[in-house]
Every structure is written in C-alpha cells, then in structure tokens.
Backbone:
C-alpha cells in the first residue's frame, strides 16, 4: 500500500489527480489495480479518510471508453473486498489541496455514507421479455388483436396506418399489464437478501425490470443462487442479465 499525507497544496509529483473513490484511512488496496491511462491507483490519506487516486501524465489522452472500463474495474475490485464510496467517471482535481477542500472537507458526511454501505456490494439486474414468446401470449389474450394482425398482413403502412397504430398501442398495453406482477414476483424472491434497491426507469416496451440491489457480502452466494433459480423459472419468457458484484454506484447519494 502506498499512502501519502502531503502538507502542501500539490500532489506528490505536482500532477493532476484522477479520483476513483473514497475509502477509510488504513485501507489496503487490492494488488494489481490498473487505472485510467494505464496509471496505478494509490491512496492519499487525510485523517480518517483516504482518496483512491492516480496521477495523470501531463499529455494523457484521457476520457476514452477504455478509461471508463478501467474506472469501473478499479472500483469494483476494491468493492469486492472493502467499502468504497465511488465518484463519477472523469473526476479530476488539480492538486491535493483541491481534493481536500472539494471532496474531503466534510469527513463526517462521507464516513456516514461509508457506514451505511459497510459490508455490502451492488448488483444490477436487467430483465426483458422475449418478444417471440410473450407477444403471441398477448395476442392470444385478445382476439381483437389477432384480427388487427390479419388485417395488416400483406398491406402497406399507408393502407392500414390506423390498424397498425391500434395494434402497436394494444401490444404496449399488454406488456404493461404483465410487467408489474412479473417484476414484483422477482423482487419478492430477492427481498430476503437485499438491503436496499434503486429501480431504473425502463425505456422499451419489453423491459421487465432494471434494478440496482444492495446486497450484504455474506448473502451474495445465496442471492446469486436465488436469481439463477428465478431465471430458470422464467425461461423462456424472460431474459436475465446480471452485473456485479459492483461498487455501490446507485447508493452513494449526495450527488457523488
């Protein structure tokens, strides 16, 4: 572990500081971390807190998609072993003094958030309907829709615009009617393992659920087993995607 507590207003090398997140002072970072522009993250400690930072090369080509991946990888690797308060991608401070004044100036608030997140990691679960399976299900529920589908067959968009609009609206309504109960069933299945959740608004008619879940580390194995069982139960109607364990991006609050 590398720690520095400079008394002057500059980083140890005078370089700009790229900030990944905040941990408690004395934290041991995992070995092998590689940050943005292939820099090596380390700690700058200030009393009870420590900032996870890299020193940016003067002419670094910073801000690439690879840097975003590196930013997340650093935070997720740290979160797997200890509590970290993640910062937004692209947070750069010109000096150690700026870091202290702009980020670490209110340690009590940051310590409170770290305490709330202690012992937990984030999982993100995204579930979508398989349209090839669910669309026929929706059509079977309403014979009127089958009639609209038959009326459209072999016609141009201009010839049956009204019917196409009516069918599209009815299909969206059908997905809407299924989504609530299906999403609620999944959340009830996972509830015993979840400390907190943040639901993301879906943008597609076939979205079932997009949710961030805060799960205690001792519960991660059982959480993943329960999610796998739910995915098997819901196959082939639904497709599951799991991201995690991750840093608690959706639970930091305070505009971090």
Residues:
């Amino acid at each position: 572990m590398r720690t520095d507590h400079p008394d002057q207003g500059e980083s140890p090398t005078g370089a700009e500081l790229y900030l990944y997140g905040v941990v408690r002072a004395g934290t041991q970072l995992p070995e092998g971390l590689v940050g943005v522009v292939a820099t090596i993250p380390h700690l700058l400690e200030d009393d009870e807190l420590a900032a996870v930072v890299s020193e940016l090369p003067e002419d670094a080509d910073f801000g690439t998609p690879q840097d975003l991946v590196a930013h997340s990888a650093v935070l997720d690797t740290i979160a797997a072993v200890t509590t970290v308060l993640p910062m937004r991608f692209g947070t750069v401070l010109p000096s150690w003094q700026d870091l202290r004044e702009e980020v670490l100036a209110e340690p009590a608030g940051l310590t409170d958030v770290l305490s709330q997140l202690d012992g937990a990691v984030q999982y993100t679960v995204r579930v979508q309907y398989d349209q090839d399976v669910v669309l026929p299900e929706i059509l079977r529920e309403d014979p009127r829709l089958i009639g609209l589908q038959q009326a459209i067959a072999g016609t141009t968009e201009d010839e049956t615009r009204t019917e196409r609009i009516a069918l599209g609206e009815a299909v969206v309504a059908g997905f809407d009617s299924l989504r609530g109960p299906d999403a609620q069933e999944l959340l009830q299945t996972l509830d015993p393992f979840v400390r907190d959740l943040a639901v993301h608004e879906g943008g597609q008619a076939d979205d079932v659920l997009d949710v961030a879940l805060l799960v205690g580390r001792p519960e991660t194995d059982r959480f993943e087993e329960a999610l796998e069982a739910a995915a098997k139960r819901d196959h082939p109607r639904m497709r599951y995607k799991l991201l995690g364990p991750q840093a608690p991006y959706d639970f930091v609050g305070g505009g971090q």
Observations:
- The chain has seven helices and ten strands.
- The radius of gyration is 24 Å.
- The first strand starts at residue 3 and ends at 4.
